[in-house]
Write a sequence for this structure.
């Protein structure tokens, strides 16, 4: 039976990306049609390897995984943030079991275009990394905004301070030119940014509880990764340290998909500062004012930005979804739970 939400997941795994993937795989209303990877939290080769690994570990090795853009569209690349996600993107796993699932040979952009043409109006793009794959897909197929049902992206911020500068969020800052193209493409788009993701603090204890309930190497791997990630965030924010936790970031994009009623959004025209001190800033024209500054005219399409969230409800739906039996019990044959 077709599930209500057919999704292509564009991602740079990444600990919270892994959390989000497992939420999507566990949720009965979501069908993950493919995982398109990009540079970001790690180099793109590592992102692709992690997507293959995480999906195989969860018994979903049949899901197509593609490798996408390796660098930003115009700006110089930055070194991946190993202190946040680990050098391997998954909290420096001590070992990995072997799987034989392989990359789909298409680029991430080509995969997005092929799938959108095959299922016009059906697919939601959930994008939780820098936005180069979406920008490349728009170049391949300018009609993409008419073929895609909706874009939900984790990135940016309107009022909350940024996490790479006082005004910029990491995914947008990593490739601001692509982000500006994506916001301006004219599709139905909702931004799930730091305004809401900084309100949802997930304690490591939640993932320990899930791992104890599910007893599977996928949930053990997630627990290991979240523990590393929480050490980083707890070192940075005292209120996060009190629960030894981390921000929900990427998983909030999927929770918005399944439970939009938990969020309050505002609409407006979004632009991105592509260079200078404010590079990566997402600026929302919230009021219909005719500004003298060019770039804010009515040709800039309207998008939505999440501004408020019911944090407790998000935590509950995450817990409920990952505690339900979505994995085959026991590790895949011959593999250990121990990491
Ligand atoms: C975003 O940046 C990455 O570190 C996370 O995976 C998330 O997508 C948060 O700013
Ligand atoms: Ca991410």
């Amino acid at each position: 039976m077709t599930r209500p939400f057919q999704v292509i997941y564009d991602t740079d795994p990444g600990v919270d990306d892994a959390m989000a993937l497992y939420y999507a795989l566990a949720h009965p209303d979501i069908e993950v049609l493919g995982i398109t990877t990009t540079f970001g939290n790690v180099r793109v080769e590592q992102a692709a390897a992690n997507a293959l690994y995480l999906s195989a570990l969860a018994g979903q090795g049949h899901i197509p995984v593609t490798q996408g853009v390796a660098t930003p569209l115009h700006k110089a690349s930055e070194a991946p943030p190993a202190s946040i996600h680990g050098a391997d993107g998954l909290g420096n796993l001590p070992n990995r079991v072997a799987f034989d699932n392989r990359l789909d040979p298409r680029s991430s952009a080509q995969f997005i275009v092929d799938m959108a043409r095959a299922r016009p109006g059906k697919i939601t793009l959930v994008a939780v990394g820098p936005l180069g794959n979406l920008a490349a897909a728009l170049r391949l197929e300018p009609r993409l905004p008419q073929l895609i049902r909706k874009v939900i992206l984790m990135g940016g911020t309107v009022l909350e301070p940024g996490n790479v500068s006082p005004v910029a969020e990491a995914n947008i800052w990593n490739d601001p030119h692509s982000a500006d193209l994506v916001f301006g493409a004219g599709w139905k788009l909702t931004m799930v940014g730091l305004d809401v993701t900084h309100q949802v603090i997930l304690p490591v204890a939640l993932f320990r509880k899930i791992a104890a309930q599910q007893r599977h190497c996928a949930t053990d791997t997630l627990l290991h990764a979240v523990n590393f990630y929480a050490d980083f965030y707890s070192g940075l924010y005292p209120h996060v340290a009190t629960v030894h936790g981390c921000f929900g970031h990427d998983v909030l994009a999927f929770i918005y998909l399944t439970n939009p009623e938990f969020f309050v959004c505002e609409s407006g025209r979004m632009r991105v500062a592509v260079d200078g001190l404010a590079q990566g800033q997402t600026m929302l024209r919230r009021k219909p004012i005719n500004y003298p500054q060019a770039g804010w005219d009515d040709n800039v399409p309207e998008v939505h930005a999440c501004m408020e969230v019911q944090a407790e409800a998000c935590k509950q739906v995450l817990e409920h979804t990952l505690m339900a039996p979505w994995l085959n019990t026991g590790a895949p044959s011959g593999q250990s739970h121990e990491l």
The two ends are 36 Å apart (CA to CA). Residues 11-12, 14, 17, 40-41, 128-129, 250 surround calcium ion (ligand 2) (CB under 6 Å).
